[in-house]
């Protein structure tokens, strides 16, 4: 694993629904200047399927100079040399993951409110994935929509970068950043776009990131 800071503002999450083309979409997104991909498999994804997809995406990211994170599966992230992981309430705690990951690993943690955010900070999260800001067609079994206000409350409570998630398009992405988010994570806004490269360009513009230039890079 490399040391891939600063954290890019646009996180592209793979769409692994049966009718999706995760590798093709990631290739186009990287060509359009996206600089972070999170590999996320649907519930039906076995370790082997997650490993196969992650190995391919990690290679594409390395070739493009982009960051690769793996959702949930810390062992898969390590096996493919990804740059880090994203973890939620049903996954390994961030400190347990940190104990086995390389020192430079990025560890994202899902939070819905300032209390969870402060707890994630204490156990060593690098960034917070905060949502759902809106209802999501990708993940329908979501407990509570927190809205822009809920996301902004988390961003105001901790000094970690907040990546807003859930039902976002370019317009909402811009509003998330106006309300304190460092950036956004999306599935459908890119994978279901008629023109993936154009969608990535619009999202990069919305979050204030130049194509291929992570936030803070010189
Ligand atoms: C950036 C980002 N934020 C939140 C999530 C959701 O993670 P989690 O709550 O663990 O749910 P699953 O994605 O595992 O279904 C995320 N993946 N990325
Ligand atoms: C993994 C996850 N966690 C909260 S919403 C979501 C899915 C986001 O997908 P979309 O951008 O298509 O709403
Ligand atoms: Mg998870």
UniProtKB/TrEMBL annotation:
UniProt protein name: Thiamine-phosphate synthase
HAMAP family hit by this protein: TMP_synthase
Pathway info: Cofactor biosynthesis; thiamine diphosphate biosynthesis; thiamine phosphate from 4-amino-2-methyl-5-diphosphomethylpyrimidine and 4-methyl-5-(2-phosphoethyl)-thiazole: step 1/1
Organism for this UniProt entry: Salininema proteolyticum
Catalytic reaction annotation: 2-[(2R,5Z)-2-carboxy-4-methylthiazol-5(2H)-ylidene]ethyl phosphate + 4-amino-2-methyl-5-(diphosphooxymethyl)pyrimidine + 2 H(+) = thiamine phosphate + CO2 + diphosphate; 4-methyl-5-(2-phosphooxyethyl)-thiazole + 4-amino-2-methyl-5-(diphosphooxymethyl)pyrimidine + H(+) = thiamine phosphate + diphosphate; 2-(2-carboxy-4-methylthiazol-5-yl)ethyl phosphate + 4-amino-2-methyl-5-(diphosphooxymethyl)pyrimidine + 2 H(+) = thiamine phosphate + CO2 + diphosphate
Cofactor: Mg(2+)
Role summary: Condenses 4-methyl-5-(beta-hydroxyethyl)thiazole monophosphate (THZ-P) and 2-methyl-4-amino-5-hydroxymethyl pyrimidine pyrophosphate (HMP-PP) to form thiamine monophosphate (TMP).
Gene: thiE
EC numbers, comma separated: 2.5.1.3
Binding site for Mg(2+): 72, 91
Gene Ontology molecular function, alphabetical: thiamine-phosphate diphosphorylase activity
Keywords: Magnesium, Metal-binding, Thiamine biosynthesis, Transferase
Co-factor binding details: Binds 1 Mg(2+) ion per subunit.
Superkingdom in the source lineage: Bacteria
Similarity comment: Belongs to the thiamine-phosphate synthase family.
Entry-linked InterPro entries: Aldolase_TIM (IPR013785), ThiamineP_synth_sf (IPR036206), ThiamineP_synth_TenI (IPR022998), TMP_synthase (IPR034291)
Residues annotated as binding 4-amino-2-methyl-5-(diphosphooxymethyl)pyrimidine: 38-42, 71, 110, 139
Binding residue positions for 2-[(2R,5Z)-2-carboxy-4-methylthiazol-5(2H)-ylidene]ethyl phosphate: 136-138, 167, 187-188
One Pfam family matching this protein: TMP-TENI
Domain Thiamine phosphate synthase/TenI intervals: 10-190
